[in-house]
Specification:
Strand content: 25-35%
Radius of gyration: 19 Å
CATH topology of the domain at 31-177 and 237-280: Rossmann fold
Number of helices: 9
Largest sheet: 11 strands, mixed
Helix content: 25-40%
Length: 281
Amino acid sequence: MTMFTRLRTMNTRPPIFAHDTVEELWTEPHRAERMLRHHLDGSNDLASRTTAFIERSVRWMTGTFGLGHGTAVADLGCGPGLYTNRLARTGAAVVGVDFSVGSIDHARRVADRAGLTVEYVAANYLTYRTCHRFDVVILIFCDFCALGPGQRGRLLSTVRTLLKPGGYFLFDVWSLAAFDASRESATYAPMLDDGFWSPHPYFGFRNTFRYELEKVTLDRYEIVEENRTSVFCNWLQHFDDAALMTELEASGLRCDRLLGDVAGTPYDPSAHGFAIVAGPA
């Protein structure tokens, strides 16, 4: 393949949700370690919310859902336990699920040092099954938006099964305002993103595409090393409240309330994101 053909391919918008690389992004040791480092830097929100926001969010959840002894919480995509370990301090029975083994190991170490009892499961939450049922299931930092339509349907069906009668599903999404603010672009740099993609020398190409009809953006990364080329896709679905409620209803869930975020801020339709509390229909 000529250089011209390769450049034309990487600058051509691929079919929507055609290439899923989420698990590859989070499980390869070098990238997983760099991602964990971002997670644990509570001063920014590159991979997780800031420490101040997380603590405010946990206080809001605890009060709103009455968390404590006798209640059960599941955190899907729990990462290094930034929410789960804090929620366990309420006395609730907490389960954290994530397919990043490094993140799960870190979360367990923190829990053990603090004398906290948390069940951590190294698994893909799309295929997670358990006999436990929960008062609250959470999915934080807009993970829902990274899933294709079929994956979102499977997730919501799983959540419906995990919830106790009267339980709640709390999650956040990117809004149409965020989609409207996005722009298509192309970026090239040696060691793009400060060496995040590989421990070896590489050249990185990032293309951002917009899918106007579907309200989806894609950040496509092509990483060229000496002996291999890798492609990673970060898809983001954007929602308004009506579209989100339609997906919930199709899986037997209903909207209980709209919020500005998972810390209980009032809903603002002009903001770049919002949160939703859902329950069994």
